[in-house]
Write a structure and sequence with these properties.
InterPro entries: Tscrpt_reg_PadR_N (IPR005149), WH-like_DNA-bd_sf (IPR036388), WH_DNA-bd_sf (IPR036390). This is PadR family transcriptional regulator. This protein is mostly helical and about 170 residues long. About 65% of the residues lie in helices and about 5% in strands. The protein contains nine helices and two strands, in the order ααααββααααα.
Amino acid sequence: MLTELEGAVLSEIRDRGRRTAFQVRGAFKSSPSVEWSGSAGSVYPAIKRLEGAGLIRSEPLPGGRRAMALRVTEAGEAALDAWARDPQRAAGVGLDPFRLRSGIWLTLEPQARRAAMRDVSEAIQASIAAHERDLAAADPIERPRMLLALRLQRLRLDWIEETLAQ
Protein backbone atom coordinates (compact mmCIF):
# COMPACT_ATOMS: atom_id res chain seq x y z
CA MET A 1 0.00 0.00 0.00
CA LEU A 2 1.28 3.44 -0.92
CA THR A 3 1.98 6.05 1.73
CA GLU A 4 0.27 9.43 1.39
CA LEU A 5 3.55 10.90 0.14
CA GLU A 6 3.99 8.16 -2.46
CA GLY A 7 0.41 8.54 -3.69
CA ALA A 8 0.88 12.29 -3.96
CA VAL A 9 4.17 11.83 -5.85
CA LEU A 10 2.57 9.43 -8.33
CA SER A 11 -0.30 11.87 -8.83
CA GLU A 12 2.11 14.75 -9.46
CA ILE A 13 3.75 12.69 -12.20
CA ARG A 14 0.64 11.12 -13.76
CA ASP A 15 -2.07 13.70 -13.20
CA ARG A 16 -0.22 17.00 -13.05
CA GLY A 17 2.47 16.40 -15.65
CA ARG A 18 5.53 16.80 -13.44
CA ARG A 19 8.21 15.15 -15.57
CA THR A 20 11.31 15.34 -13.38
CA ALA A 21 12.10 14.71 -9.73
CA PHE A 22 13.02 18.40 -9.46
CA GLN A 23 9.54 19.41 -10.72
CA VAL A 24 7.84 17.00 -8.30
CA ARG A 25 9.92 18.34 -5.41
CA GLY A 26 9.05 21.90 -6.47
CA ALA A 27 5.32 21.09 -6.31
CA PHE A 28 5.72 19.95 -2.72
CA LYS A 29 7.99 22.82 -1.78
CA SER A 30 5.48 25.39 -3.05
CA SER A 31 2.47 23.68 -1.46
CA PRO A 32 0.28 25.88 0.73
CA SER A 33 0.23 22.99 3.22
CA VAL A 34 3.10 23.28 5.68
CA GLU A 35 3.17 19.50 6.01
CA TRP A 36 3.58 18.96 2.27
CA SER A 37 6.08 21.77 1.79
CA GLY A 38 8.08 20.27 4.66
CA SER A 39 8.06 16.94 2.79
CA ALA A 40 10.03 18.35 -0.14
CA GLY A 41 13.20 16.68 1.13
CA SER A 42 11.40 13.34 1.25
CA VAL A 43 10.45 13.44 -2.42
CA TYR A 44 13.72 12.12 -3.86
CA PRO A 45 13.80 9.06 -1.55
CA ALA A 46 10.12 8.41 -2.32
CA ILE A 47 10.83 8.54 -6.06
CA LYS A 48 13.68 6.03 -5.56
CA ARG A 49 11.35 3.71 -3.61
CA LEU A 50 8.64 3.99 -6.29
CA GLU A 51 11.17 3.31 -9.00
CA GLY A 52 12.60 0.34 -7.08
CA ALA A 53 9.07 -1.06 -6.69
CA GLY A 54 8.49 -0.74 -10.45
CA LEU A 55 5.78 1.91 -10.03
CA ILE A 56 7.63 4.59 -11.98
CA ARG A 57 10.26 4.46 -14.69
CA SER A 58 12.88 7.07 -15.45
CA GLU A 59 14.45 7.77 -18.84
CA PRO A 60 17.08 10.32 -19.84
CA LEU A 61 15.62 13.57 -21.11
CA PRO A 62 16.54 14.49 -24.68
CA GLY A 63 19.25 17.09 -25.09
CA GLY A 64 21.92 15.54 -22.93
CA ARG A 65 20.64 17.00 -19.64
CA ARG A 66 21.31 14.94 -16.54
CA ALA A 67 17.66 15.08 -15.46
CA MET A 68 15.55 12.01 -15.92
CA ALA A 69 11.98 12.00 -17.26
CA LEU A 70 9.60 10.19 -14.90
CA ARG A 71 6.68 8.09 -16.06
CA VAL A 72 4.16 6.08 -14.06
CA THR A 73 4.15 2.41 -15.07
CA GLU A 74 1.06 0.21 -15.43
CA ALA A 75 1.76 -1.16 -11.95
CA GLY A 76 2.04 2.42 -10.70
CA GLU A 77 -1.29 3.30 -12.32
CA ALA A 78 -2.94 0.37 -10.54
CA ALA A 79 -1.32 1.27 -7.20
CA LEU A 80 -2.32 4.92 -7.51
CA ASP A 81 -5.90 4.03 -8.39
CA ALA A 82 -6.13 1.59 -5.45
CA TRP A 83 -4.66 4.24 -3.12
CA ALA A 84 -7.17 6.86 -4.34
CA ARG A 85 -10.08 4.47 -3.76
CA ASP A 86 -9.05 3.35 -0.22
CA PRO A 87 -12.09 4.51 1.78
CA GLN A 88 -10.60 4.12 5.25
CA ARG A 89 -7.54 6.19 4.54
CA ALA A 90 -9.43 8.74 2.43
CA ALA A 91 -11.93 9.26 5.27
CA GLY A 92 -9.25 9.64 7.93
CA VAL A 93 -8.84 13.05 9.54
CA GLY A 94 -5.09 12.95 9.00
CA LEU A 95 -2.60 15.35 10.47
CA ASP A 96 -4.42 18.59 11.26
CA PRO A 97 -2.38 21.24 13.07
CA PHE A 98 -5.49 23.31 13.83
CA ARG A 99 -7.34 20.39 15.41
CA LEU A 100 -4.22 19.38 17.33
CA ARG A 101 -3.92 22.85 18.91
CA SER A 102 -7.63 23.60 19.43
CA GLY A 103 -7.94 22.00 22.86
CA ILE A 104 -4.70 23.61 24.03
CA TRP A 105 -5.99 27.07 23.13
CA LEU A 106 -8.87 26.49 25.52
CA THR A 107 -6.41 25.97 28.40
CA LEU A 108 -4.77 29.36 27.85
CA GLU A 109 -5.61 32.35 30.01
CA PRO A 110 -8.52 34.26 28.40
CA GLN A 111 -6.41 37.14 27.09
CA ALA A 112 -3.77 34.78 25.62
CA ARG A 113 -6.52 32.57 24.17
CA ARG A 114 -8.18 35.53 22.42
CA ALA A 115 -4.83 36.76 21.08
CA ALA A 116 -3.85 33.30 19.80
CA MET A 117 -7.21 32.75 18.15
CA ARG A 118 -7.18 36.22 16.57
CA ASP A 119 -3.70 35.54 15.17
CA VAL A 120 -4.81 32.17 13.78
CA SER A 121 -7.95 33.79 12.36
CA GLU A 122 -5.83 36.37 10.52
CA ALA A 123 -3.58 33.62 9.12
CA ILE A 124 -6.64 31.69 7.97
CA GLN A 125 -8.09 34.78 6.29
CA ALA A 126 -4.80 35.28 4.45
CA SER A 127 -4.88 31.63 3.38
CA ILE A 128 -8.44 32.03 2.09
CA ALA A 129 -7.46 35.12 0.11
CA ALA A 130 -4.50 33.29 -1.45
CA HIS A 131 -6.62 30.27 -2.40
CA GLU A 132 -9.33 32.48 -3.89
CA ARG A 133 -6.72 34.39 -5.88
CA ASP A 134 -5.10 31.20 -7.22
CA LEU A 135 -8.31 29.27 -7.87
CA ALA A 136 -8.82 30.50 -11.44
CA ALA A 137 -5.42 29.17 -12.51
CA ALA A 138 -5.79 25.80 -10.78
CA ASP A 139 -5.66 22.68 -12.92
CA PRO A 140 -8.47 20.05 -12.74
CA ILE A 141 -6.57 18.06 -10.10
CA GLU A 142 -5.71 21.02 -7.86
CA ARG A 143 -9.06 22.83 -8.12
CA PRO A 144 -11.08 20.44 -5.91
CA ARG A 145 -8.23 20.40 -3.40
CA MET A 146 -8.34 24.19 -3.22
CA LEU A 147 -12.13 24.27 -2.94
CA LEU A 148 -12.00 21.80 -0.06
CA ALA A 149 -9.23 23.83 1.60
CA LEU A 150 -11.42 26.93 1.34
CA ARG A 151 -14.35 25.12 2.99
CA LEU A 152 -12.11 23.80 5.74
CA GLN A 153 -10.62 27.23 6.43
CA ARG A 154 -14.08 28.80 6.59
CA LEU A 155 -15.20 26.11 9.06
CA ARG A 156 -12.15 26.87 11.17
CA LEU A 157 -13.08 30.56 11.20
CA ASP A 158 -16.62 29.64 12.26
CA TRP A 159 -15.25 27.53 15.13
CA ILE A 160 -12.99 30.37 16.29
CA GLU A 161 -15.87 32.85 16.22
CA GLU A 162 -18.17 30.48 18.14
CA THR A 163 -15.47 29.73 20.69
CA LEU A 164 -14.60 33.38 21.26
CA ALA A 165 -18.30 34.24 21.67
CA GLN A 166 -18.69 31.76 24.53
